[in-house]
Write a structure and sequence with these properties.
The complex is a heterodimer. Chain A is an alpha/beta fold. Chain A contains twelve helices and twelve strands. Chain A has helices at about 10-25, 40-45, 70-85, 100-110, 130-135, 160-175, 195-210, 225-240, 250-265, 280-285, 300-315, 340-345, and strands spanning about 55-60, 90, 115-120, 140-145, 155-160, 185-190, 215-220, 245-250, 270-275, 290-295, 330, 335-340. The radius of gyration of chain A is 21 Å and the shape is elongated. Classes of the chains: A alpha/beta, B mainly alpha.
């Protein structure tokens, strides 16, 4: 039995290149413009941190179970970037959504005396203690995305901007509906007990305040899964026979949401997605569905985290920055991908 | 593979019967602790069964919910679109619940239904199976379901494992395998005949195909439980397995078949979910085990086995689906829905308890 292969070799290669390009944007935060004359400019830019082989570094990586497109992309990005460095060894633990199990896995990495830890906690607050433990053991922690409760628990945080994601989605919808009186929007949120969902909704609400002609008339939370996306969206469509725009927090549950929209035969509104999955970008590019934009939450942050961890392990700063040390925190930008700029972002789309 | 209905019909007297004439005894009357009103075919007991108070109270709950829906959202709730939606959403978990009801009546439990749905849906949507079109996807889903059911059944019936543990192990490993096979990705289906099944164009007289499958499984399940030796044996081993064994029932084989049946239902449900969502994902069927058990319990099935009805379970599913729909239409969040669900389970069980203790 053949196992699924959702991307062809060519698209994998382009994804790799795209990763490098995006890495340049996100990891360094600011890159030197003088690299542009090189053929391999994206590759060089990706390695701005310090691309020459240096001291060997062992990086421990612990993340949640990759049962979701975005989390899967996170793991892929980390592995791929680590492979690019000859001086980096990646010790990767099996992903788990169980707090106790993840703590155990991180403790194993601490005992193995890895040089640097990259941790994407299933639940940031619950894993703070083990972050502290690592830091006290002299292992610097790069906290990826879901933030620990105490800044003492990590040396550097890199992650997405959930508030900004909601805000940019709201601003985009606001601009699209600017001339419309009494416009109505609805929101298909993610998992409600995650901090990130609250932040996304807060940003979205704040953006809508800038557009008094728009009113949010409905909101349901799904569970980041295709099944819940289909089910919750189908209900929302029943509840609201007419609205102008929909913001869906997550492209994975968006697969289900788009299916429900198709099943209901509706096309009288515009939809904005979230995260930046490849299927969403393909649909935006084709322009034949209600999906007109998606707000990025780039999984490339995992590749950047490996860059930062390596710089930490080698005691260097990030290339292109004047600092001698890597920054304490880096927040990625949640760009809005539309038909106009989709080609630029398509290589970063994950499947 | 035989349909659930055809197998028992051909088997009654052929069973290895240590007691001569045991097969005949079985068809004539149940063994162990027979539930009241289930014995014969005389009109009175049939009437009593149809008017089962437990189901009536669920019909009442459903009527109240419909009234609330009609009152709060008259235009949306009672529309054809919405009725189609409620029934469609009930259909996937409904099919799972029918299988679960059999297992619980026999005194067992199947905690792996959600994971089996996930694995079957993921496996059925790999590119390899998509090459074979609708038939390939359906066959793969059903075979994976049956395969998992077989493992459960063998472990429990012949390995002597407690159903709770055996199916718990299946829950963990099937879900893990689903993540592995899908590589953590959402597998989008591109086979048009499968996708078309979920779209309004394919509705038969306004009824979505998924609802037709659900109805067919319900009717088959009802017939098998109430009109076949297989059904009577299921009730018998749930009431008292030892007495059933002494009466000549091959308890082990019966148990094995029941878990196969549950796996089969999960395979069918997985196919339905693929049609519904147009994709396979390892998170599919999340918490189905709890939903199916809850629906069966409020439908009057005894968790200890020996008693239960298919109609009760299906009504239980409809109550839960209607609540979800009602709350979504009124823009209430899922936390409120969960609280209501919990309250209904408690209320239903209290009502049953109150009735069974004199």
């Amino acid at each position: 039995m053949r196992f699924p292969q959702s991307s062809s070799p060519t698209s994998r290669r382009s994804l790799l290149l795209g990763t490098a390009a995006a890495g340049a944007l996100f990891a360094a935060g600011c890159t030197s413009n003088e690299n542009n004359d090189s053929d391999e400019n994206s590759k060089q830019a990706a390695n701005t941190a310090n691309d020459k082989p240096g001291k060997a570094v062992t990086i421990g990586f612990a993340g949640p179970q990759a049962d979701h497109g975005w989390l899967n992309a996170i793991n892929e990005q980390a592995k791929r970037r680590a492979k690019e460095y000859k001086d980096v060894t990646l010790e990767i633990t099996e992903g788990s959504n169980d707090t106790a199990q993840q703590i155990g896995q991180i403790e194993t990495l601490i005992n193995k005396k890895v040089d640097v830890l990259v941790i994407l906690p299933a639940d940031g607050k619950a894993l703070t203690q083990v972050g502290l433990k690592a830091m006290r053991a002299g292992i610097p922690v790069v906290n990826l995305d879901r933030v620990f409760a105490s800044p003492q628990a990590y040396r550097c945080w890199i992650g997405g901007d959930n508030y900004g994601m909601g805000f940019n989605a709201g601003q985009y919808i606001g601009e699209q509906l600017k001339g419309k009186k009494n416009a109505k929007v609805i929101e298909l949120a993610g998992i409600d007990n995650l901090e990130l969902t609250r932040q996304r909704t807060e940003g979205f609400n704040d953006a809508l305040k800038n557009y008094p002609n728009i009113k949010k008339v409905g909101r349901q939370s799904a569970e980041f899964t295709v099944e819940s996306g289909q089910s919750k969206m189908a209900q929302l469509l029943q509840a609201h026979s007419d609205f102008d725009a929909l913001w869906n927090h997550d492209d994975d549950q968006g697969v289900g949401a788009e299916r429900a929209i198709k099943q209901a035969g509706r096309d009288d509104f515009l939809m904005v997605g979230g995260a930046g999955a490849k299927h969403a970008m393909d649909a935006i590019k084709a322009g034949n569905t209600v999906l007109k934009a998606t707000v990025l939450y780039p999984p490339t942050m995992a590749a950047s985290a490996i860059d930062l961890a390596r710089a930490l392990g080698q005691g260097k700063g990030v290339g292109g920055l004047a600092e001698l040390e890597i920054p304490a925190s880096l927040t990625l930008y949640s760009a809005v991908v539309t038909k106009d700029n989709v080609d630029e972002y398509l290589p970063t789309g994950f499947s | 593979m035989n349909s659930p209905g055809s197998r028992p019909a051909s088997s009654p007297p052929a069973d290895p019967a240590p007691v001569p004439g045991a097969g005949a005894t079985l068809t004539a009357g149940p063994v162990g602790k027979p539930p009241a009103g289930r014995t014969g075919t005389d009109p009175l007991s049939r009437l009593r069964r149809l008017a089962d108070l437990r189901n009536l109270s669920l019909v009442g709950v459903l009527a109240v919910l419909i009234a609330v829906g009609g009152f709060t959202k008259p235009d949306e709730f009672l529309s054809t679109d919405n009725l189609q939606l409620v029934l469609t959403q009930a259909s996937v978990i409904g099919v799972v619940t029918v299988g679960m009801t059999f297992v619980i009546i026999s005194g067992g439990i199947d905690l792996s239904v959600g994971a089996m749905v996930a694995l079957a849906s993921v496996w059925a949507t790999t590119l390899a199976t998509q090459d074979y079109g609708l038939g390939g996807i359906l066959l793969c889903a059903v075979l994976v379901g049956l395969g998992c059911g077989l493992v459960n059944g063998v472990l429990i019936a012949y390995g002597g494992m407690v159903p709770f543990i055996a199916t718990l192990a299946m829950l963990a490993s099937a879900r893990g395998l689903a993540v592995q096979i899908s590589d953590g990705r959402t597998q989008v289906v591109t086979v048009d005949p499968v996708l078309d099944l979920g779209l309004p164009d394919s509705y038969v007289l306004g009824i979505p195909p998924l609802v037709i499958i659900f109805a067919a499984v319900t009717v088959l399940g009802w017939l098998v439980l109430n009109r076949t030796t297989f059904g009577r044996r299921t009730v018998a081993i749930g009431g008292n397995a030892e007495a059933a064994r002494l009466a000549g029932i091959d308890v082990k084989r019966q148990r094995l078949t029941l878990y196969l049946l549950s796996g089969l239902c999960c395979g069918v449900a997985a196919f339905m979910l693929v049609v519904l969502t147009g994709s396979g994902q390892s998170t599919n069927g999340n918490l189905y085990e709890l939903d199916a058990i809850a629906a069966a319990i409020i439908g009057g099935t005894l968790l200890s086995g020996g008693r239960g009805t298919i109609t009760g379970s299906v009504l239980g599913v409809l109550v839960f689906t209607t609540i979800t729909n009602l709350f979504a239409l009124n823009n209430l969040q899922s936390d409120v829905q969960q609280i209501a669900k919990g309250a209904i389970i408690v209320a239903a069980v209290l009502v049953q308890k109150g009735r069974s203790t004199p």
